[in-house]
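Q: Hi! First time asking for a complex rather than a single chain. Here are the components, and I think there are two in total. Is that enough to go on?
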Amino acid sequence: MFAEFVEGPFWYFSLGVFVVGVAWRFITMLRFGTRRDLSVARASAAVGALRTNLSRFLPRREVAGRIRVPVVAGYLFHLGLFALLLFAAPHVEFIKNHITGFGWTPMPHWAFILASEAAFIGLLVLWLHRVLNPVTRLLSRADDHIAAILVFVVMLTGCLALFQSFDGLRVTHLFLAELLLLYFPFSSLMHALMFVPSRGYTGASLGRRGIHA
Amino acid sequence: MSERFEQGMSTLRKQMDARVVSYLSSCVNCGVCAEACLFYTETGDPRYTPIYKVEPLRRLWHGEYTFWGKLASAFGFGSTLTEQDFADWEELVYDGCTMCGRCSMVCPVGIDIAYMIRKVKEGLAAAGYSPDDLKSAAQRAVEIGSPMGVTLATLQATISVQEKECGIPITMDREGADYLCLFSSGEIVGFPEFIGSIARIFKAADVSWTISSDYFEATNTGVQIGNSAVAAQLIERIVSAAEKLKVKYVISPECGHAYTTIRWDAPNIIGRPLPFDVVHILELLDQLRREGRLKTRGSTDMHLTYHDPCNISRRGGVVREPRHLLDMVAPNFEEMSDHGAMNWCCGGGGGVSTIERARDLRTRVFNVKKRQLDEIGVEAVVTACSNCRHTWEDGLEAYGPEEDVVELIGLTELVARYLVEDESRAR
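A: Yes, that's all I need. Here is the structure of the assembled complex.
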């Protein structure tokens, strides 16, 4: 019965909250508006927006040496997570059956092992850095920890479900993923989408000054 | 809650815009911004983390505009801002930040933290939580026309001395001149040779220019303190002076924040485009160089470096021009390790050098510049901001007499030293 609930009504509910919640966050952000910049531009704001959206994927040389741990761990986690999300065989099957109607070639088993190890190591190191570094310890709030723990347990149950072939684990994994979808629009996980306008605004504002931000 | 705190909260609410919301929604508290900020790297105090300085704005947004914040408030659990928070953040925001924007260049999600710190200042200033030294400077700027109390009489006396030294008359209030030149009070008082230098350069390059007796101050204490009304008032004086003299361009002198204010912020502060173009003195000198109107002969053999004023380079976009000019007169020029748009701030801009209680902090964070200097061992530091120059002087003095032998030179003055003023000797 729980499995039917998780695979049925609760899936549609959590997906709906996710989609409507994310849309609401973007709409409310845009409704605040921005004032048109009345200064005479030196260069293109649009080019600046695009440039900054791409350039911030790599750390600047001048600070790279100081932030090696969060950068390496951050990339391990994010790349591993995206690989799992989009190319793990059960996910490809789920997306095909429940979202898109079509699938694609999933990654081989060895790649799944690699991706999941990278994601786990990255997330654990990031979380350790968060609690041990005095700066991140000062900045961090409950939201940061809840998001990390939620993602961790989703990943953990996912890997266990794949290896144990116990349907209860698969349902648990799906249930926790649906909780993550519910939490997403109301949390710092929104950075996964909001980084685009954030980088864009800065890139446009400084780019029109001729600054490669 | 006091009326002035309510005023501060009301002003802080008005600072919200789509940019701020996108920034606050993207921040994952990664702490990378701290590693770009000299106030953190040189003190090790995590409270100087740039995004932490924005905390009053973040808490306002969280409490009044987010799901969890509004839910918590409905049940009486919200962590609302208090007047004590304003008091606590005053030192972090004013003493511990020059709005240099280095943090904005490194944030992985692209947050322009300096943009938001400027907004936090608006709220704190409206509530009365800004340093007394800045309040006094702002009052002098409004009442006298200069944050340092430099009067027209002082300027005229300085001009008179410079006219005698360079042998060139400097005409004030010349209607129809192409360029109106502003000055920072720091320049007039501390480095008046800048005025003589531009007089010589402009004569040699046949540039039509003038100074306004109505208003000549380049710096904007309204921006430094975070009071848009004062900022607008000071900008309008420049606009009136320029309109009265019917100039085409206004020159921003060797001052960092003055440039970003008049060039990039002014139209948005007063709500309309400026009726003139703005050019930084370095941009104009480089333009004259390209046009063949600025000629030099000879050069210095000093081993020197260039300190990029943050609001001219990183926030202003004027990075290549000073290097073109240095190429003309300084073949032994060596860059500091982090330079150009990613230079380290000197720690004195944005009003910090005006705040006496911040002197020790400012001296401590200057250590990053001292380290940069020690790495390359130069004889001189060239810069294009009088405030940076004062900060460098104080910093080098604080680190002992051996450090004091490094010469500090303004870039315009350096170029003028090798100026060809007679066409027959032109190269």
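A: Residues 69 and 75 of chain B are 10 Å apart (CA to CA). Let me know if you'd like any chain examined more closely.
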